[in-house]
C-alpha cells in the first residue's frame, strides 16, 4: 500500500492536517504524519518534532524554552531537510504534502527540494499566488494557492485541502515509472534569438541517437539545467546560449546566479559552450528599464520583454566570468566562437550588430583561456548558421 507523508506544524495546523490525512486515508492510502510544530500536537504524529530536531543534533525542549519562533523554524527546517530524504530513501513514503503560510512554506519546501525529481510533492500555501521561485527552486513541487489563510476548516479551505489531497493521492497511485530508452541524455540551452542554431544541433543529435533536453535560458532554465547535471541525469552539455551571464553581470531580470556554468565542469561532464545571446540584457516592459539605461540601445522584443545591447566593457566582464568557470572545468570542454554574430539580431544590418563589442568578448575569452585546457574553436559564421550548429553537435559527440 502506498504512503503519503503529511508534513507540517501539528500544533498550530493540527486540525487542518488531520483533515488532509483523513482525505488521503479515505482513498485507501496510508499516511506518515511528521510534526514540525514546537508545542503539543493536536494529532499524535508518527514522527515527532523531537525526532526532527534530533536529526540535526538539536533538543526540542531547549527550543521550546527559548520561545523564539525564528530559531525554532530554522532548526526544524534544517532537521526536516535532513530527515525527509532519509525517510524516502528508506521507503517510508511515496509522496509528500504540506500546508502553511510563509513560515510553514519556508519550513516544508526545503525538505521537498531534497527529494528526487518525480517524487510527488504538493505544497498548499498562502504564498502560492506570488513568486514561488524561493520555495520551488529547481524542483518539481506543485504549489497550490490556499486562497484563504491556511487556518481553520471552512467551506473554502475544505475544498482546497480536499483537492490537494486528491492531487497527491492521484500522483502517488498513478505515478508512472519511465523506463529509459538507453539513449544518452544531453542538455542544451536556447533563447528565441538562438533557436535556429539549437534546433539544427538538436536535430543532428537526434539523428545520431541522442536525447536532448532543451532549457530556455531565462534564469530558471539555467538553474534547472545545472541542478539536473548535479543530480547525474545529464551525460553531455551543449551550452550554446550563455546569455544569463549578461543579466547576472549587468543587472537584468533573467540571471541564473553565480553558479551558472559550474555543474558540468565540477562533475567532469563533457561540454561544448558558446556565447549565444551575450549581446543582450533582459528587462521587462520598456517603462521598467532602469533610469541609468534609458539612453542605451534598447530593443522591444515583445510587449513584456525589452532587450538592451551589451557594451564592450560589459562584455569584457562577462567574458571574464565565463572564462573563469570554464578554466576550472574537470571534464572535456570546448568553447565555440561564431565570429559573425552571437544572436539573430547581432548580425550585420540588425539592431544589435556591434562587431567591435563582440571582438572585445572574443579577445577576453581567448586571452583568459590561453593557458587552460579549454579548446577554442572559431567559425567565420554567425551562431544561427547551420554550419555552426552542426559543428557544435559533432564536437559534443566527439567529446562524449
Automatic annotation (TrEMBL):
A Pfam family that this protein carries is UPF0261
Q: What is this protein called?
A: UPF0261 family protein
Write down the InterPro entries for this protein, in alphabetical order: Tobamovirus_resist_UPF0261, UPF0261, UPF0261_C, UPF0261_N
Q: Which domain of life is it from?
A: Bacteria
**Domain called UPF0261: residue spans:** 2-176, 184-399
PANTHER family, A to Z? UPF0261 DOMAIN PROTEIN (AFU_ORTHOLOGUE AFUA_1G10120)
Amino acid at each position: 500500500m502506498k504512503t503519503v507523508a503529511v508534513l507540517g506544524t501539528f500544533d498550530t495546523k493540527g486540525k487542518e492536517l488531520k483533515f488532509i490525512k483523513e482525505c488521503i486515508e479515505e482513498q485507501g492510502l496510508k499516511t506518515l504524519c511528521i510534526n514540525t510544530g514546537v508545542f503539543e500536537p493536536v494529532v499524535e504524529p508518527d514522527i515527532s518534532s523531537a525526532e526532527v530536531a534530533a536529526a540535526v543534533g538539536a533538543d526540542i525542549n531547549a527550543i521550546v524554552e527559548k520561545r523564539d519562533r525564528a530559531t525554532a523554524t530554522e532548526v526544524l527546517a534544517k532537521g526536516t531537510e535532513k530527515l525527509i530524504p532519509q525517510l524516502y530513501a528508506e521507503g517510508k513514503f511515496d509522496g509528500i504534502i504540506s500546508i502553511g503560510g510563509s513560515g510553514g512554506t519556508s519550513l516544508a519546501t526545503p525538505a521537498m527540494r531534497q527529494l528526487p525529481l518525480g517524487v510527488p510533492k504538493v505544497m498548499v500555501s498562502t504564498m502560492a499566488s506570488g513568486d514561488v521561485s524561493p520555495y520551488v527552486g529547481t524542483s518539481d513541487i506543485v504549489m497550490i494557492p490556499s486562497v484563504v489563510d491556511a487556518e481553520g476548516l471552512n467551506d473554502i479551505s475544505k475544498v482546497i485541502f480536499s483537492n490537494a489531497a486528491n492531487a497527491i493521492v492521484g500522483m502517488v497511485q498513478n505515478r508512472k515509472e519511465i523506463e529509459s530508452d538507453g539513449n544518452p541524455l544531453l542538455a542544451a540551452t536556447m533563447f528565441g534569438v538562438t533557436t535556429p542554431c539549437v534546433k539544427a544541433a538538436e536535430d543532428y543529435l537526434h539523428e545520431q541517437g541522442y536525447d536532448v533536453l532543451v532549457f530556455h535560458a531565462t534564469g530558471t532554465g539555467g538553474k534547472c539545467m545545472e541542478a539536473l547535471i548535479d543530480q547525474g541525469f545529464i551525460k553531455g552539455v551543449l551550452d550554446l546560449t550563455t546569455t544569463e551571464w549578461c543579466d547576472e553581470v549587468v543587472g537584468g531580470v533573467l540571471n541564473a546566479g553565480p553558479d551558472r556554468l559550474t555543474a558540468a565542469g565540477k562533475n567532469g561532464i563533457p561540454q561544448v559552450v558558446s556565447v549565444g545571446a551575450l549581446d543582450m540584457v533582459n528587462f521587462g516592459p520598456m517603462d521598467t528599464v532602469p533610469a541609468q539605461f534609458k539612453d542605451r540601445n534598447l530593443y522591444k522584443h515583445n510587449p513584456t520583454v525589452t532587450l538592451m545591447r551589451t557594451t564592450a566593457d560589459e562584455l569584457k566582464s562577462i567574458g571574464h566570468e565565463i572564462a573563469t568557470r570554464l578554466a576550472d572545468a574537470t571534464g572535456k570542454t570546448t568553447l565555440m566562437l561564431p565570429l559573425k554574430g552571437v544572436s539573430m539580431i547581432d548580425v550585420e544590418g540588425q539592431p544589435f550588430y556591434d562587431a567591435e563589442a563582440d571582438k572585445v568578448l572574443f579577445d577576453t575569452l581567448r586571452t583568459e583561456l590561453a593557458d587552460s585546457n579549454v579548446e577554442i574553436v572559431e567559425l567565420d559564421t554567425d551562431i544561427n548558421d547551420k554550419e555552426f550548429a552542426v559543428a557544435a553537435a559533432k564536437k559534443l559527440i566527439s567529446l562524449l
